[in-house]
Design a protein that fits this description.
The complex is a heterodimer. Helices cover 33% and strands 32% of the residues of chain A. By secondary structure, chain A is an alpha+beta fold. Chain A is elongated, with a radius of gyration of 18 Å. Chain B is mostly helical. Chain B is 55% helix and 0% strand. Chain B has 14 helices and no strands. The N and C termini of chain B lie far apart (52 Å). The chains are: A alpha+beta, B mainly alpha. The interface between A and B is large, with 36 and 46 residues.
Chain lengths: 130, 309
């Protein structure tokens, strides 16, 4: 197959699939409630289950406290979830919320959208201990 | 015989891949079952697929050069007959089984293969979420016996392409189970869903490419249980759709682990070649440790499929 034709097929195919998926509403991010956040955490860390989950006001992420006293964060990742312990990280405030940056190349950061009135409280909750 | 050539079947299959994805998506949308699609996940998978083809164009000469060098060494030539092709296909599938098994049991090889398991979805786009770094695993050496036995390198690569195309259609939730005789011999959507499951029961099982008999022969077969749906993805899922991070994250992980301070040379080596999840201080878990941990919490699962003893 000529390289030009292969390139057109690949680029055109990816663009077409992207457009169709988006138009079908498959880019929508579902809400994350406390029960879903707990399930998402326990799914990845079954040996240290979540005992307390606090979803953000917009229900895109949740702060987790675990049985062993660990803290973690669960957030929506497309239609799915990612769970990450709060270790080796730093927080920066942005105009729309907080960004948590991890020392993890596979999960470098997550932006947690937060209304201004709760941002300070969440920052305090998320701040590294000590 | 040095100038044998076969078509690049993977490139020729690209229109079929796109059409099949469209059909699967239409089925899921119309029927409301049979799998899930999410835009960014699917696009990442497709870009990984395109990158795989590109890396083959750029780096394919390394493996091909190695195979041609072997071809000049071997006194054997099995020719181009249909029986040679058939035998080559079966033996190359055996080769695939072992490379795939190494890919899950040796971190250096897992670093290349992990991206294929990094989606939490399981649909036809997941099939195309392929490695960009396969050349650097040096797993081409596992094909050396085929060349030395007298199978022409072009034939071996042609069979490898057919193998890859076969595996495309099994990446779907839209097909339940195939007829019993087929499930007994061939790799199927059901068997391969198990392979993509991150459930402790399903870890490190069903490595087959085309023939599931290899798993049955080598003791790695686990059936899909109706009562335990595979949970797709990695033990700890990654939080990035960036194809560069998807392609290289485990390599970066190896680099960071190997170059950390205060560990022995043995530990550094093991961070590269021990099974994924190995750590010098036991802070992570290998598949065996995850399964043992599961059995401590669920002793009733002991002796059931996927849990030995």
């Amino acid at each position: 197959m000529p390289l030009e034709l292969l390139l057109i097929l690949v680029v055109g195919g990816i663009a077409a699939v992207t457009l169709v998926l988006h138009l079908l509403g498959l880019s929508d991010v579902p809400a994350l409630d406390a029960a879903q956040a707990k399930a998402a955490w326990d799914r990845e860390y079954p040996a240290d289950p979540a005992i307390h989950c606090t979803p953000t006001p917009n229900a895109r992420a949740a702060l987790i406290r675990t049985q062993n006293g660990q803290r973690g964060l669960v957030w929506r990742f497309g239609a799915d979830t990612v769970a990450h312990p709060l270790s080796q990280y730093r927080i920066t405030e942005t105009p729309t919320g907080l960004t948590v940056r991890f020392r993890d190349y596979a999960t470098p950061s997550v932006h947690v959208p937060l209304p201004a009135q709760v941002r300070a409280a969440w920052k305090q909750e998320l701040e590294p201990a000590g | 015989m040095t100038d044998l050539s076969y078509p690049d079947v993977v490139q020729l299959a690209v229109p079929f891949f796109i059409a099949a994805i469209a059909i699967e998506l239409a089925w899921i949308v119309i029927k409301g079952r049979g799998g899930r699609y999410e835009t960014r996940d699917a696009v990442t998978s497709l870009i990984m697929g395109a990158g795989n083809v590109a890396s083959g164009l750029v780096l394919g000469f390394v493996a091909y050069g190695f195979f041609m060098a072997l071809w000049t060494l071997t006194p054997l030539d099995l020719g181009t007959g249909w029986w040679a092709l058939l035998l080559c296909f079966v033996l190359d599938d055996l080769r695939y089984y072992w490379v795939h098994r190494f890919g899950h049991r040796i971190r250096w090889v897992w670093a290349s293969h992990v991206n294929h398991h990094s989606s939490q979805h399981y649909n036809l786009t997941t099939a195309l979420r392929q490695t960009w770094t396969g050349t650097f695993t040096f797993m081409m050496v596992v094909r050396a016996p085929l060349i030395l036995l007298g199978f022409h390198p072009a034939m071996v690569l042609f069979c490898g392409g057919l193998n890859l195309i076969y595996q495309f259609w099994i990446h779907t939730e839209a097909i339940g189970k195939m007829p019993k005789w087929f499930e007994a011999v061939m790799n199927t959507p059901s068997h391969h869903r198990v392979h993509h499951g991150r459930n402790p029961r399903y870890l490190d099982s069903n490595y087959a490419g085309v023939f599931i008999v290899w798993d049955k022969l080598f003791g790695t077969f686990v059936p899909e249980l109706d009562e335990e749906k595979p949970d797709f993805g990695l033990v700890h899922n990654i939080g990035s759709f960036n194809p560069i991070r998807v392609a290289f994250h485990e390599w970066v992980g190896i680099f960071r682990d190997v170059t950390q301070r205060g560990i022995s040379m043995r530990d550094r080596l093991l961070y590269a070649v021990a099974p994924p999840g190995w750590s010098h201080d036991g802070s992570r878990g290998t598949s065996e440790e995850i399964q043992a941990d599961h059995l401590r919490r669920h002793p009733e699962d002991r002796g059931t499929p996927g849990f030995k003893g």
